[in-house]
From TrEMBL:
Residues 841-938 form the Fibronectin type-III domain. It holds the Pfam family fn3. This is Fibronectin type-III domain-containing protein. It comes from the Bacteria. It comes from Adlercreutzia caecimuris B7. One of its GO terms (molecular function) is hydrolase activity, acting on glycosyl bonds. Residues 1-34 form the signal peptide. InterPro entries: FN3_dom (IPR003961), FN3_sf (IPR036116), Ig-like_fold (IPR013783), Invasin/intimin_cell_adhesion (IPR008964), Peptidase_C_arc/bac (IPR007280). Keywords: Glycosidase, Hydrolase, Signal. One of its GO terms (biological process) is carbohydrate metabolic process. The keyword Transcription regulation does not apply.
Length: 938
């Protein structure tokens, strides 16, 4: 294009776009409407939104209210509802005039939002006439003081986008003033007024020639609109001139009040960041004007860079970012004589480029101010498609379909004089996941975002499984639809599908399904289950994989695709719900004629049971149905089918489901073998007192399914009953045999134990269990609990002591021995033994004399025989307790004296002597002698 950059930049910076070029205002923007209001000095206009009682517009008595039946959100069905409100300070006669060009419905409500009923019980409601300009008088009668609401509603095409007028009249007073006064004082001086986003200022009056500047600041490029209310009527002749200026003071747009008097809105405008000014000048006296400003940040634009009139110099389009250009080239202008401002022929064109990193669905949004031609080329400059926009200000969406990865060019040419020097805007929209070619790359374990819309009801993603196993698909619940989940192989053949329709009304917040697959790459399609989608439905989904060599492999919906089973190995599987009618699971195994096979279906992943699965069907290789001998329930929600082939070969198992959700289960085919049961007794040998009465038993553990039998080897000693309890009959030993029979499921087994029926012990024992006696001493030890049986005695060490048949003990030497007495059995008591330990020690030596010396003493004692003694020990201490005594040893039985030196002088000492005998390396000591005292010399 031309190099007149000043003009192009000036146009681009203005960022002007008329309301037809841009989306609707945000829902919080209040818009005033009026097609042809009744001439009045003052008129109220509706402020959107006003579709519920919370946002109801106010009716003021005697002041006409103008509204319009229009709502962009319900444009497809031509439905709009406006809510109006009025208040009565006292009971009043109320009449409402409703002027409409076609049919609307109306109704009066009380303060609680309930339809108001007259004393006779009637509601105040009705309809105006269809397709005809009429004024309907609504006589409400006498209404009590309070607040009321009035609804005005229409679904008629003839009423759509048409204005209506409401006039409230009553003989009372308003309950509370709801609007500012309509006759503010004049302010003839020029003013500068700051206004913020969403703020309403005014109303203002203007003297002729008076100017007010309304300044506002945006921090980033924004979409802006001015909404006016309490404007003077057309008949008043009052006129305002308005100019929107940039931060640099340049005029972006100018207009007079007449341009907005019937709409109440001026916009939309695209403005850059900075402080802008709306300059309002009264061309004559103006009675009232109220202003509200709204703007929304829209992000920055990409602006064209000249030259861009060829493929080589094309500007770049980026996804989801708006590109702004200017249709202008001064070298192509042709002017009429005497008119150097209006070109007769206007032609200008730009080239834009766009690049796709993967196959994508592409659309272009064109916002233009006149007829504009567009063409799309591929990277080789081959034309792919072309078209034109309509005349006037409009927004055109061009669907380019699915384009492959690569570079493309967009040609833009102004086609009439109305686009000359005007901005146009292009927004590139790309969508991935719409088909196999542009499938999303869904990494395992990653949460992905996607959405359905009216023109995109499928989301495709590709996933690579590193090994065979289970692919789990989880997705959040969209607002008003449900998914059909599909898996395709790389040849785009359908492998598996799952219809989640039956889960749509459940309270779960997610949909989830699993499928067994081989190693490799697959496509997952999440398809909207409903055909009509009125808005975008966002959702997230996650794909996870669990490796397993024992998982069903889809597709396995027929015998040819059956998943092979290993005997005795559980195979995990998932089956779709009743809506996924094509999902039948087939498995196969090799069977041997005459052999029994148990087909086990078990729940998994939190499932309680497998009751929602059909009875398994078994077929032979020729497709003939084979009966199972039984199909029964086992513990823990498990089911079993018993099958016995009549011939060797491959057999096929079909599993189906009538569940409302996917069923997670496992299937196992066991080649039946009788089990060896556990059969054991608690005690292998039992001793039973003959005299103990009543039955007794031995605990038996058995996990088979047969009835146990019991047998005694000697009923004269012990008899056994059918329940395993026993009863004694005589002394002796009997063997009890327990037998488990062979059953359909278990092998036979036996075990046994012995029962010894014995006489009781009389409790025979000695009164003392241990006795210590000196060589010259004597002792006695009495019997207890004699039964009358013959007694026999013996000594364990006859070198120490012997015992005769009468129990008399004779000492033989120093040492220790055990005396044992055996009491023979009698008719009533068993043989029993009693014993005690006998220790014989030396006699206690006696001190003969003690002679004191200077710090010493000498003690003499009566010596013992060598048979009793090996030596002596002497101890002396200054205390009677012998604490801290000095101890001396004298070796030799013949020694009889000892001198103890190094004692304290002049101290009293206590002296003791004892003998010892060493026998077999062990020492035996006599008792200490009685202590004698002596005082050492100083």
């Amino acid at each position: 294009m031309s190099t007149d950059l000043n003009r192009a930049c000036r146009c681009a910076l203005s960022l002007l776009l008329c309301s037809a070029l841009l989306p609707t205002l945000p829902t919080n923007t209040h818009t005033a409407w009026a097609d042809d209001p009744t001439p009045q000095a003052t008129m109220d206009y509706e402020s959107e939104p006003n579709d519920d009682m919370k946002y109801a517009d106010v009716l003021r008595p005697g002041i006409p209210f103008t509204g319009k039946m229009y709502d962009r959100s319900t444009e497809m069905i031509h439905l709009d509802i406006d809510m109006l409100t009025f208040s009565l300070a006292k009971e009043s006669e109320v009449r409402i005039s409703l002027t409409t060009p076609s049919r609307v419905s109306y109704q009066i409500y009380d303060e609680e939002g309930e339809p108001y009923r007259t004393p006779s019980g009637n509601t105040i409601s009705g309809q105006t006439e269809l397709g005809k300009q009429t004024t309907t008088q609504i006589d409400c009668g006498s209404l009590p003081a309070g607040k009321y609401y009035m609804s005005v509603q229409s679904t008629e095409t003839s009423m759509w986008n048409k204005s209506y007028e409401v006039l409230l009249q009553h003989d009372g007073e308003e309950e509370t003033p709801t609007l500012p006064p309509t006759d503010p004082p004049l302010a003839p001086e020029d003013e500068v007024i700051s206004i913020t986003n969403g703020e309403t200022v005014g109303p203002y009056t203007f003297a002729a020639g008076q100017t007010r500047e309304f300044k506002f600041t945006t921090s980033e490029p924004s979409r802006m609109a001015f909404a006016f209310s309490q404007l003077p009527s057309v008949s008043s002749g009052e006129t305002l001139h308005m100019a929107l200026k940039s931060p640099e003071g340049k005029t972006i747009q100018e207009w007079d009040l007449d341009r907005i008097r019937t709409t109440g809105i001026c916009g939309d405008f695209l403005i850059g960041k900075g402080t802008h000014t709306l300059v309002v000048t009264a061309l004559c006296k103006v009675s009232t004007m109220q202003l509200k400003l709204t703007f929304d940040p829209i992000g920055s634009f990409d602006y064209e860079t000249e030259p861009n009139d060829s493929f080589d110099t094309a500007d770049t389009l980026y996804p989801d970012k708006t590109f702004a250009g200017v249709a202008y080239d001064p070298t192509l202008e042709v002017f009429l004589p005497n008119d150097l401002e209006t070109p007769v022929m206007a032609e200008a064109y730009d080239y834009l480029s766009l690049s796709l990193s993967s196959r994508s669905s592409v659309s272009l949004e064109l916002a233009t101010q006149g007829v504009t031609e567009y063409k799309l080329y591929d990277s080789n400059q081959h034309l792919l498609g072309e078209g034109k926009t309509g005349s006037g200000n409009r927004k055109t969406t061009v669907s380019c379909g699915a384009l492959n990865k690569g570079k493309y060019f967009l040609f833009i040419r102004c086609a009439d004089v109305n686009t000359w020097g005007k901005e146009y805007f292009v927004t590139l929209r790309t969508t991935h996941g719409t088909d196999f070619e542009n499938a999303l790359d869904a990494a395992l374990g990653k949460k992905n975002g996607a959405s359905w819309s009216s023109d995109q009801k499928n989301v495709y993603s590709s996933v690579n499984l590193p090994s065979a196993g289970c692919l789990k698909i989880e997705m959040s619940k969209p607002e008003s639809s449900y998914p059909v989940m599909e898996v395709y192989d790389t040849s785009r053949n359908l492998v598996w599908s799952y219809n989640a329709r039956d889960e749509a009304d459940s309270s779960k917040s997610t949909y989830s399904a699993s499928v067994g697959l081989k190693k490799g790459t697959y496509y997952v399609c999440l398809r909207a289950g409903t055909t009509y989608i009125s808005k975008t439905l966002p959702f997230t989904f996650t794909l996870t994989h669990k490796a397993s060599t024992n998982y069903e492999i889809e597709p396995n919906g027929n015998a040819q695709q059956a998943t092979p089973l290993k005997l005795g190995v559980a195979c995990s599987a998932d089956i779709g719900n009743a809506k996924s009618a094509s999902d039948k699971d087939f498995f196969k195994f090799t069977g041997t004629a005459g052999k029994r096979y148990d087909i086990i279906l078990a729940p998994r992943e939190g499932l309680w049971d497998v009751s929602d699965l059909y009875h398994v069907d078994v077929y032979d290789a020729a497709g003939n149905f084979k009966d199972c001998s039984s199909y029964d329930s086992l513990p823990n929600g498990t089911k079993r089918a018993v099958f016995q082939p009549t011939a060797n070969g491959t057999y096929y198992i079909k599993v189906g489901s009538f569940s409302s959700e996917q069923v997670h289960y496992s299937i196992t085919v066991n080649a039946f073998q009788k089990k060896t049961p556990t059969l054991k007794v608690k005690s292998s040998s039992i001793r039973r007192n003959y005299w103990k009465t009543g039955r007794f038993s031995n605990q038996v553990t058995y996990n088979g399914d047969g009835d146990l039998t019991y047998r005694s080897s000697n009923d004269k000693v012990v008899s056994v009953y059918h329940d395993g309890t026993m009863l004694t009959w005589g002394f002796g030993t009997a063997t009890i045999t327990v037998t488990a029979p062979e059953t359909e499921n278990y092998k036979g087994a036996t075990t046994s134990f012995k029962v010894h029926v014995v006489k009781p012990s009389s409790g025979f024992k000695y009164a003392r269990k241990s006795i210590k006696v000196p060589w010259s001493g004597s002792f006695s030890n009495k019997y207890k609990n004699l039964s009358g049986g013959k007694l026999t005695h013996k000594s364990s060490n006859k070198k120490v002591a012997t015992i005769n048949s009468k129990g008399l003990v004779t000492f033989k030497g120093i040492g220790a021995t055990t005396i044992t007495t055996t009491q023979a059995a009698t008719s009533y008591y068993a043989k029993s033994n009693a014993s005690y330990t006998l220790k014989i020690v030396p006699d206690t030596p006696k001190i003969k004399t003690i002679k004191a010396g200077k710090g010493s003493l000498k003690v003499r004692w009566r010596k013992l025989s060598a048979k009793q003694s090996s030596g002596y020990e002497v101890r002396c201490a200054t205390t009677k307790s012998m604490k801290k005594a000095v101890k001396k040893t004298v070796k030799g039985a013949k020694k009889s004296s000892l001198k103890v030196s190094k004692l304290k002088k002049g101290k009293k000492y206590y002296v003791q002597v004892r003998a010892y005998k060493k026998v077999g390396g062990k020492m035996y000591y006599s008792s200490w002698s009685k202590a004698k005292t002596v005082k050492t010399k100083k």
